[in-house]
Amino acid sequence: MKLSLQERLKLPFFPVIQAPMAGGFTPPSFIAAVCEEGGLGSIGAGYLSPESLREQIREVKKLTSKAFAVNLFIPTPVTLDQTKIEESKKILLKYHQELGISAEPKLFWDEQLFEKQFQVVLEEKVPVFSFAFGFLSAEKMQALKSQGIFIIGTATSLEEGLFLEQQGCDAIAAQGSEAGGHRGSFLDGKFPLVRVWDLVDELVDHVHIPVLAAGGIINAEGVHKARQLGASGVQVGTAFLVCKESSASPEFKKKLLTSPEGSTVLTKSFSGRWARGVENRFMKELEPLQEHLPDYPLQNSLTQVLRKHALEKGQTDFLSLWAGEGVGHLQELSIHELMQELTK
Ligand SMILES: Cc1cc2nc3c(=O)[nH]c(=O)nc-3n(C[C@H](O)[C@H](O)[C@H](O)COP(=O)(O)O)c2cc1C
User: Fold this and answer.
1) Which residue is closest in CA terms to ligand 1's atom 30?
2) Ligand 1 pocket member 327 (CB < 6 A)
3) Smallest CA separation from ligand 1 atom 16, residue
4) In three state form, how does the secondary structure of 95-152 look?
5) In this structure, which of 161, 167, 240, 250 has its CB flanked by the most CB atoms within 10 Å?
6) Of 145, 21, 143, whose CA–CA distance to 73 is shortest?
7) How far is the CA of 147 from the centre of ligand 1 (A)?
8) Domains of the chain by range and CATH?
9) Residue nearest atom 6 of ligand 1, based on CA coordinates
10) Interval 108-156: pLDDT, tens
């Protein structure tokens, strides 16, 4: 008999997945607490060094015996467009000068990072592996499967979902256009913007593996709707980001909790890849220049000095305030309270 997603992940309720959120917002204690509350916590490990990733996995394992996930970004080919790089540096330098930052924008990326992170995932035999921005080679899929690791891919369209099913994924995170953070899109250079309920509806009709609804879900109403449409679970990011236990900076949290509905937009300004966040001065001013900026991960590296400075000084105008369309309806709950809400 085929097991449901809930049974496969040994969860006590309809699956609530705490969305992976790279950027250091959810320490191991946070992830373990979600698992202990009956959800599936995820380590958003996209930017972690292999050493930190291993440490975090071991820490989560120490704190909970329940299943948890590790999420990585699939590397995208890097095009070194010198004109765009120079243009972006010029734009950024003006902000550096205004804010009194002496360091210059720095271009860097590690082509081997993903391979090293992936190796840690295999060695540590994590229970669940999820990924965004692409797909895995047949060899990597096989390596995960031979360790019994449950695999979740991210799709933003029906085509991507069908593709991931064919690749052998065990479940699909259906990322609607409402979702906070980077778009997980990967097929044909397109960035489809399908609303979450339409995407879930289409995917449930056409794929035979579990579908997780992601984007704008912040309460029981959203979970019930996902369930009604035939989703096998939900993946919730922004509502967890504002939890009392999250490590998001107080300024970031305040912005998420006090911004009105409709204040998030899609931007490429911070990273060179489409992502949704609360609109701020940097996003507004760079909006007309989007096509002059280098692609991810180059722009992401160039804005790092500025973002780090902004974080230290609490300047939300220069922080990537990734968040979904739930902004305007968020509450600062504890993980326990949020899990109670999402599972009632
Ligand atoms: C701050 C932030 C960081 C994110 N980082 C990742 C990530 O590292 N990997 C990933 O697959 N998705 C990431 N996402 C997207 C989530 O997986 C998910 O699609 C999204 O949070 C769902 O929408 P919601 O935020 O409205 O709940 C991130 C989202 C946010 C808000």
Assistant:
1) 181
2) no
3) 19
4) HHHHHCCCCCCCCCCCCCHHHHHHHHHHHCCCCEEEEECCCCCHHHHHHHHHCCCEEE
5) 240
6) 21
7) 26
8) 5-342 (3.20.20.70)
9) 21
10) 999 999 999 999 999 999 999 999 999 999 999 999 999 999 999 999 9
